[in-house]
């Protein structure tokens, strides 16, 4: 039996415990809604690699810490202020962040032991990346799930192309383009969660799993604790989602939504899309549709290409992503200056440039993912 925990970075943002056969991970950055830093990604990877090969650990559970006065979050995503600062400063850690994050996402999807994610509160972006690959994804009445990257001139990364494209119908395009927040019922209905448990029952679940037992027994015990899933909220719009978001391009999607005169939900959805970066909406639509035909490893390599281009096709403050983060999280004026400013000004050449890999295959930073 392993006697010690693996050495972590020491900043305390990831807390590891051994409870019986369970490896328990707590994301411990509640003041930032457990947003992932590079050190957190490295600590998570260190733990999962060590526990993968440790016979004394039969299952892993990951959860988010909470802080009085702050919102509840499993993980609100990556540290976008770091992205902004690093991009403007030319900090090479920005490259490391995405390479190591996507490698971690891949590790979780293929993890050989039960990996259980307690998706309580906000689960967005990078939080989806470290939960969608779980053997058991548990949501609560407080779950607020989204891939909101188009709101900052980015695209739904961390494997988002892969897992969103596998949602039913055109739900993947809808969630990817709009960044719509969904609750527990829609998350389960659309295949982005496996089961429901009230938030007040999470601690007792962890206690129940803190025993010496094998992997199969621990996973079965966790599943036995699940309760009835609340009804979905957005599922009633799915026929309309499937119709509108099947259009050939972003302009067609918006036109289909706006043509639904008298449909308030459709008009609000169209208005949301008109606030996003026209260029990154087109890139995102292409990403999701390509990813339907890809393996997870292929999708992550594509997304690594895309995120490199997000910061380097137009570098510094000219980047749509840097501008989007500035408007949302730095200056907070909520008035991004997108280039181009209109959906009909986006050309196929602009979009396709994002899908040309900046690396030859033998030198790709994610070339070893299988």
UniProtKB/TrEMBL annotation:
<dbReference type="InterPro" id="IPR032259">
    <property type="entry name" value="HIBYL-CoA-H"/>
</dbReference>
<dbReference type="InterPro" id="IPR029045">
    <property type="entry name" value="ClpP/crotonase-like_dom_sf"/>
</dbReference>
<dbReference type="Pfam" id="PF16113">
    <property type="entry name" value="ECH_2"/>
</dbReference>
<protein>
    <submittedName>
        <fullName>3-hydroxyisobutyryl-CoA hydrolase</fullName>
    </submittedName>
</protein>
<keyword id="KW-0378">Hydrolase</keyword>
<dbReference type="GO" id="GO:0006574">
    <property type="term" value="P:L-valine catabolic process"/>
</dbReference>
<dbReference type="InterPro" id="IPR045004">
    <property type="entry name" value="ECH_dom"/>
</dbReference>
<dbReference type="GO" id="GO:0003860">
    <property type="term" value="F:3-hydroxyisobutyryl-CoA hydrolase activity"/>
</dbReference>
<feature type="domain" description="Enoyl-CoA hydratase/isomerase">
    <location>
        <begin position="23"/>
        <end position="355"/>
    </location>
</feature>
């Amino acid at each position: 039996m392993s006697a010690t925990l693996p050495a972590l970075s020491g900043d305390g943002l990831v807390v590891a415990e051994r409870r019986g056969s369970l490896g328990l991970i707590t994301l411990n950055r509640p003041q930032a809604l457990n947003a992932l830093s590079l050190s957190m990604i490295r600590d998570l990877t260190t733990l999962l690699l060590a526990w993968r090969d440790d016979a004394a650990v039969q299952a892993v559970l990951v959860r988010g810490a909470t802080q009085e006065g702050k919102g509840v979050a499993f993980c609100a995503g990556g540290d976008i202020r770091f992205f902004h600062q690093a991009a403007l400063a030319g900090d090479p850690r920005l490259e490391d962040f995405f390479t190591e994050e996507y490698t971690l996402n891949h590790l979780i999807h293929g993890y050989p032991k039960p990996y259980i994610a307690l998706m309580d509160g906000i689960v967005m972006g990078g939080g989806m990346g470290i939960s969608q690959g779980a053997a058991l994804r548990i949501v609560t009445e407080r779950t607020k799930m989204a891939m909101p990257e188009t709101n900052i001139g980015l695209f739904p990364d961390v494997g988002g192309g892969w897992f969103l494209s596998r949602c039913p119908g055109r739900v993947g395009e809808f969630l990817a383009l709009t960044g719509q927040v969904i609750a527990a019922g829609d998350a389960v209905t659309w295949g982005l969660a496996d089961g429901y448990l009230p938030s007040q029952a999470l601690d007792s679940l962890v206690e129940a799993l803190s025993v010496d037992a094998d992997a199969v027994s621990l996973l079965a015990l966790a599943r036995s604790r699940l309760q009835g899933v609340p009804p979905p909220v957005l599922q009633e719009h799915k026929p309309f989602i499937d119709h509108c978001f099947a259009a050939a391009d972003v302009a067609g999607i918006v036109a289909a939504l706006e043509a639904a005169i008298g449909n308030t939900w459709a008009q609000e959805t169209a208005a949301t899309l008109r606030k996003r970066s026209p260029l990154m909406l087109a890139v995102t639509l292409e990403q999701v549709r390509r990813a339907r035909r890809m393996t997870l490893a292929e999708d992550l390599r594509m997304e690594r290409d895309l995120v490199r281009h997000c910061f380097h096709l137009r570098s510094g403050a000219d980047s749509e992503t840097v501008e989007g983060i500035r408007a949302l999280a730095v200056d907070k004026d909520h008035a991004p200056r997108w280039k181009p400013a209109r959906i009909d000004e986006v050309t196929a050449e602009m979009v396709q440039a994002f899908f040309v890999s900046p690396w030859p295959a033998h030198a790709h930073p994610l070339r070893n993912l299988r």
